[in-house]
Amino acid sequence: MDKHLKFSSKLEAESVLFDKVDDALVPKFGFSIDVVGSIYRQTGVVIHSKEGPIFETEAVPGWHVNVRGVGEDDFCEYEVNVQKPIRVWA
What we know:
Elements: E1 2-7, H1 10-17, E2 18-21, E3 24-27, E4 32-49, E5 52-68
Antiparallel strand pairs: 1-5, 2-3, 4-5
């Protein structure tokens, strides 16, 4: 099963999803992880510059991670419903 997760920080995500082994992060539970990290969305404000229009963005709160191969009840407390994912599994 695929899930979109949102943590309060990178540190929280790492502590929940990974073990540290010889200075490397290894998934704790044997599933696939796609760390998206920070997500930015357009605010609707357009800044005009010599190079052309620049669309202002703002950070979406949280640290975002996609996981694949977890059970339906895994990570429910971090799961978010995403209408239009910015990144999906191929």
